[in-house]
Write a structure and sequence with these properties.
Pfam families: NMT1 (PF09084). InterPro entries: Peri-bd_TauA, Solute-binding_3/MltF_N, SsuA/THI5. One of its GO terms (biological process) is alkanesulfonate transmembrane transport. Residues 27-244 form the Solute-binding protein family 3/N-terminal domain. It is found in: Periplasm. With 329 residues, this protein is an alpha/beta fold. It has 2 domains: 28-105 and 208-328, 3-Layer(aba) Sandwich (D-Maltodextrin-Binding Protein, domain 2); 109-204, D-Maltodextrin-Binding Protein, domain 2. The chain has helices spanning 3-17, 39-45, 47-52, 64-73, 83-91, 137-148, 163-172, 184-189, 198-203, 216-221, 223-242, 244-249, 251-261, 268-272, 280-304, 322-328; strands at 27-32, 55-60, 78-82, 96-105, 109-114, 129-132, 157-160, 177-181, 192-197, 209-215, 275-276. The strands form 2 sheets. Strands 2-1-3-10-4-11 form a 6-stranded mixed sheet, with helices on both faces. Strand 6 (129-132), helix 6 (137-148) and strand 7 form a beta-alpha-beta unit. Helix 2 crosses helix 11, helix 11 packs across helix 16 (322-328) and helix 15 runs antiparallel to helix 16. It is globular and about 55 Å long. The termini are far apart.
Length: 329
């Protein structure tokens, strides 16, 4: 049994136990990833702690699958995940809710092919080794792209690697291509070219997004903390939306984002424009039928690919606009 299969079975069993963990707002563990986005400035500034009065333990993770595992264990109460691992977790009945859309993914995630690997067009991927973090948004996008190109995934060598492992494998010349996000994406671009980005895949009918999720037991006991978290995040998005160029040109913002994410300062401005960050009023609308449908469609795709065993009758209970609405007040 593979590591992925063991993790899947463990997550399913744990989710079904309904285990509750005693966590207080004064001691909150939050899982974040290296995605470049405006709220990383608020994170670096300690704005979440100031707004909530809570002591926050920020933990960096390399993939949504790892975040989901930590949330399932109770070690993490709030986490940043992509739509694919989120859909997989919901399909396995993990007690979570999506309370913010962190980013609608575009060119910030892409399939890069190595220079000299002999890949000039999609058909050339046959027989090549492509690295991707399994059950991630990039994994979902890769499979959707292959389906669009009518390429049987079994004809491609798809290997499961974390972003840092992708960078190491790329530098060794062990892989021909990778579908990933920054900073690994930027490193691959240094001697590779983008074959397709998630902007294109979204146009083909398979959009992806990043989201903030919360354990239901934590949210029920600490609704004010979740509301304050939403307010701080959405204020950062509003600050960026008011003048994106000025936000990205401010040296302090760039330094903070680069420090938190590990990206190169000179790449930050371009990476910020690679995604879209919905504001509070749009969040309240998105976190209803649109996100429920996205989770439903993504879960159905994952089931077709054999990544989840069963589907929920409805995914509505895994989405809540309560906290986005509170941010509007």
């Amino acid at each position: 049994m593979s590591t992925l299969d063991r993790t899947t079975r463990w997550l399913s069993a744990l989710a079904l136990t309904g285990t509750a963990f005693a966590v207080h707002a004064a001691d909150v563990t939050i899982a974040y990833q290296t995605t470049v986005e405006p709220a990383k400035v608020a994170q670096a500034d300690g704005a979440y702690e100031k707004a909530s009065g809570a002591k926050i333990d920020w933990r960096k993770f390399e993939s949504g699958a790892e975040v989901i595992t930590a949330v399932a264990s109770g070690d993490v109460q709030i986490g940043y995940v992509g739509s694919s691992p989120l859909a997989a977790a919901a399909s396995r009945s993990l007690p979570i809710q999506t309370f913010l859309i962190a980013a609608q993914i575009g060119s910030a995630e892409a399939l890069v092919v190595r220079n000299g690997a002999g890949i000039a067009k999609p058909a050339d991927l046959a027989g090549k080794k492509i690295a991707v973090p399994f059950v991630s948004t990039t994994h979902y996008s890769l499979l959707a792209a292959l389906k669009h190109w009518k390429i049987d995934p079994s004809k491609v060598q798809i290997v499961n690697l974390r972003p840092s492992e992708i960078t190491a494998a790329w530098q060794r010349g062990d892989i021909d291509a990778a579908y990933v996000w920054d900073p690994a994406l930027g490193k691959a671009k240094e001697n590779g070219k983008v074959l397709v980005s998630s902007t294109d895949v979204a146009k083909w009918g398979a959009p992806t997004f990043d989201a903030w999720i919360v354990r239901k037991d934590f949210a029920e006991k600490n609704p004010r903390f979740v509301e304050q978290f939403a307010r701080v995040t959405l204020k950062a998005y509003a600050d960026y939306a008011a003048n994106p160029k000025a936000f990205a040109a401010k040296a302090a913002n760039v330094e903070k984002i680069a420090r938190v994410t590990g990206s190169k300062p000179e790449e930050v401005a371009g990476l910020l424009t690679g995604n879209r960050y919905p504001l509070a009023d749009e969040q309240a609308r998105l976190l209803a039928d649109a996100t429920t449908k996205a989770l439903t469609d993504t879960s159905a795709f994952l089931k077709d690919q054999g990544k989840v065993d069963a589907l929920q009758p409805s995914y509505a209970s895994y989405v809540s606009n309560r906290y986005a609405k509170a941010a509007l007040k």
